[in-house]
Amino acid sequence: MTEPAPATDKALRLSVIIPTFNRAQILASSVKDVLNQNYRDYELWVIDQSAPDQAAANRAFIDQTADPRLHYLHLDKTGLPNARNEGLRRAKGEIVLFLDDDVILLTPDFLTAHLAAYDDPKVGGVTGRHVERTLHMNSKRTACHVAWSGRTIFNLFGTERQEIGTCKGSNMSFRKSVTASVGGFDRKTNMLEDADFSVRVADAGWILMYEPAAELVHLSVAAGGVREKSAVETEYRRFSSTAYYILKHRGFWGCVPFVATFMVIAATRLWRYRSLTIFPGYIKALRGGFALARTGADQVI
């Protein structure tokens, strides 16, 4: 069900958007964390793509909470980039904060920390500190970017504010005004949509900032979210999405180190799964990602 944003004449500094998919129980906890923040002047949109039973539970929770800041939209079409764009379409805030549906905010001033980073008018996007429950960092220093190899280099556990390469979707915010020049999230990618959007914001001349005071626990709950039914299917999607990203942002020659690296990754997976039958799937995923990139982006909000 599509519902318009409530009419208001009051200018808002902040809109919070939480896309969700089949995680009713943990979503409720994440929403409560936001509603209990010290900063109060914001709107919170839950963009739901869940199956009917969990969507009903989410809707019931929203109704029972009865907080005028809290709004709900159910989409029949699934896809994280599309959900974020639907949130952007409705957001009335000057700053738009995106959170995953499986997070625990570690400070009552989490929202304030995001907003404070925008005191610098050159800052266009902010990503916060991540305490990861299952994801493993692969950098010794604070970092978040897609390397020339196609691997995502990631360590958002540092304690110093600094510029960053890309923002991470589970805890990131942007000025709403950046969408006037860069558009929204690219619906044609299944992963790296946060990196893709971040790079376009940076290319438009904005600074991306890492703010450690905006700290949360990212649970990466196994059920729901963006995960596939199997590890192999998830990796196929990662190969395809990375191929799309690399060709879109790095061009033909940027594909050379990426393909070399990901072929090595594919070979290690053959050994891990003891199966030659999965290799054609990796090749198909790469070719599919490249082919999709050639058709152009879908990032109009």
Strand proportion: 15-25%
Fill in the CATH topology of the largest domain: Spore Coat Polysaccharide Biosynthesis Protein SpsA, Chain A
Can you name the CATH architecture of the largest domain?
A: Alpha-Beta Complex
- Fourth-tier CATH superfamily name of the largest domain: Spore Coat Polysaccharide Biosynthesis Protein SpsA, Chain A
| SSE pattern | EHEHEHEEHEEEEEHHEHH
What count of helical segments does DSSP give? 8
Which structural class best describes the helix and strand composition? alpha/beta
Note the overall shape.
globular
The overall pLDDT average reads 93
Characterize the largest beta sheet: strand count, sense, and whether it forms a barrel. 9 strands, mixed
Identify the CATH class of the largest domain. Alpha Beta
Gyration radius, rounded: 19 Å
In whole angstroms, the N-to-C terminal distance is: 18 Å
Overall description:
With 301 residues, this protein is of the alpha/beta class. It has two domains: 12-218, Spore Coat Polysaccharide Biosynthesis Protein SpsA, Chain A (Alpha-Beta Complex); 231-294, no CATH class. 39% of the residues lie in helices and 23% in strands. Strands 1, 2, 3, 4, 5, 6, 9, 10 and 11 form a nine-stranded mixed sheet that branches. Strands 7-8 form a two-stranded antiparallel ribbon. Strand 7 and strand 8 form a beta hairpin. The longest helix has 43 residues, at 231-273. The radius of gyration is 19 Å and the shape is globular.
